[in-house]
Sequence to fold (306 residues):
Amino acid sequence: MREPTTVRQDGLPERVTIYEVGPRDGLQNESAVVPVEVKAELITRLQAAGLPVVEATSMVHPRWVPQLADAEELLGRLDHVERLPVLVPNERGLDRALAAGVRHVAVFGSATETFARRNLNRSWDEQFAMFEPVVARALAEGVDVRAYVSMCLGDPWEGEVALDRVVETGRRLLDLGAYQLSLGDTIGVGTPGHVTALLDAFNAAGTGDDLLAVHFHDTYGQALANAYAALAHGVTTYDASAGGLGGCPYAESATGNLATEDLVWMLHGLGVATGVDLEALVATSRWLEGHLGRPSPSRVVRALAP
Ligand code: MG
Fold:
């Protein structure tokens, strides 16, 4: 069996958008540094497999993320750079992205004080002043801005994270001009009821599910259950990483982005359209294993191995 049996559930979206983060969020946390031509082929293959959005790289300083030091060279090898989102940590990163022809950028915020200081070298409150000119300048150039909110369901240093703090973080990023929030369970500790409560809290504050995406990690085996909770709630954008690539280099206990293949299997089984060709995607992750020197942690990739 190469595809699941489809059984529709009432109340679920007809179609969702998968926001593929493997080439950026995945590869930045792989110990292997993948050659630029392999990255370019990965992105091209992911697009050919039907993934509508592929975040290509990050314009972070190479000192912090040497795995992505080839960002400009990578973009120079790709067609239609204007379709590929790129993470920009600051104004310098935005300058680099604009010079490379990028038209979609993302900023990476933190719901917690400790992670803001560790990852951004700013206090929680100061991060908004850092992002403000990035977002304003991007919008003035006609470039849209997505905002990640990390540590939404738990923080490795602070433990539990208050929902109202997550909502305030997200609302301030939307107020700056971001078109969408990607709510990240950066260390993968969340459970489905927690996801529902977080989405309810955003809705209660006036932020609808149409402005929200979710970004789950499978550290505790909860990523798909959490995605189902978001689906039942009405969220229609899901971050996922081909083959379960990567995690988060700044959060010690973070492992394993939700694998795109595992998400697609569930969605197709539920009759939720994604536009993704699962076999082509699995073949891509199998091909990449050879360049990473380790097997994919995705259960679906393993199950569908020839
Ligand atoms: Mg991630």
The two ends are 12 Å apart (CA to CA). The beta strands are 17-20, 53-54, 57-58, 86-87, 104-110, 144-150, 180-185, 212-216, 237-240.
